[in-house]
Design goal:
By secondary structure, this protein is of the alpha+beta class. It has five helices and ten strands, in the order αβααβαββββββββα. The chain is about 20% helix and about 20% strand.
Length: about 325
């Protein structure tokens, strides 16, 4: 079968799954021994690699790809996924051994609101803060000290909501539960979000964390709602691409950032995940993204061998200083 034939066949299955999920909002999951919906398991989001956070402008308000567009995406992902074997056959190592490819789907973007599927316009204060951000993702930037790097470069945190979006690797998500508590382990930067569901109050606003202060509650019989405040400015709110203007790695988080997440189990192995982010200091309006989670309890979460003080930061600084010295001598 041709790539296009495979893609069209997969698109039919994809649509059937989406339709099934839409019809399963009344699904009732199993209960834990203490009487709460049982969401425990491993829910990696690596299958969503290749789905842009922001919708390319040419799609306008269109949420799904046409058959032809879907086939093109499937072919592109298939070609990228072949890089691993191609590198093995040529006895080389490159992005094929580094980046994990996702599976094709019809979504034009993860963002579903605003209707154009793009991050809202920044406020003037947001633009000012964005211009002051520094990271290794910035092209043409000099590196002279640790303040020229962001918290992800330094292996401290990827931040929130960025941590909840797929990247090229380390996309494991694992949910643990205990009475009155949900723990969400993220493979990237080996962080775990601790989410009380027992009604305990949030910490005072003066106490801030890189991934915020989260509180959850159960809604109906199949939905976990998580509200997060007390986010500490520093990380980028989004950081899965650099093609937008400004780059998605330059989206600051303010002290007023507020996150609402809804995890709705639509079947024994599927969760509809929706996140709404509101930061009135940075954005002119809130925005919402939707991700389809699929259970894979065979997914292995490995050590994220990245720590503050590793070799990346001094290497960047040394190379940048050497480049500037060479340029000044010419």
């Amino acid at each position: 079968m041709t790539i296009r034939g495979v893609a069209l066949a997969m698109s039919v299955a994809c649509c059937a799954i989406s339709a099934g999920a839409a019809q399963a909002q009344d699904y009732t999951p199993d209960q834990t021994a203490w009487g709460e919906p049982d969401f425990r398991g491993t829910w990696p989001i690596d299958h969503l690699n290749g789905t842009p956070l922001q919708r390319p402008e040419e799609f306008g308000d269109r949420e799904f790809l046409t058959d032809e567009e879907y086939a093109e995406r499937a072919g592109r992902i298939e070609a990228a996924a072949a890089r691993y074997e191609n590198e093995d056959s040529s006895d080389t190592m490159g992005m094929g051994h580094w980046a994990e490819m996702g599976e094709p789907n019809r979504r034009t973007s993860l963002i579903i609101d605003p209707p154009n599927g793009r991050l809202p316009e920044m406020t003037e204060e947001g633009k000012r803060r964005s211009a002051e951000m520094r990271s290794s993702w910035r092209r043409g930037q000099d590196f002279d000290w640790v303040t020229d790097f962001d918290t992800w470069d330094r292996c401290i945190t990827r931040g929130l909501p960025a941590s909840m979006f797929p990247f090229q690797y380390n996309n494991g998500m694992r949910i643990f539960q205990a009475p009155g508590l949900v723990a969400l382990q993220m493979e990237m930067v080996h962080e775990t979000r601790i989410i009380p569901t027992d009604g305990s109050p949030a910490l005072p606003s003066q106490i801030r964390h890189w991934i915020g202060e989260s509180r959850g509650h159960w809604e109906d019989e199949n939905t976990l709602v998580i509200e997060t405040t007390n986010l500490k400015p520093g990380p980028s709110a989004t950081n899965i691409g650099t093609t937008s203007s400004p780059p998605e790695n330059d989206t600051p988080v303010s002290e007023q950032a507020h996150v609402i997440e809804r995890l709705t189990m639509t079947g024994p192995d599927t969760i509809d995940y929706e996140i709404t982010y509101n930061d009135p200091v940075v954005y002119t309006q809130p925005w919402t993204a939707h991700l389809d989670w699929v259970r894979d309890d065979n997914y292995g979460i490995f050590e994220y061998a990245c720590h503050e003080g590793n070799e990346q930061i001094p290497n960047y600084i040394s190379a940048s200083r050497a480049q500037r010295q060479q340029a000044s001598a010419e």
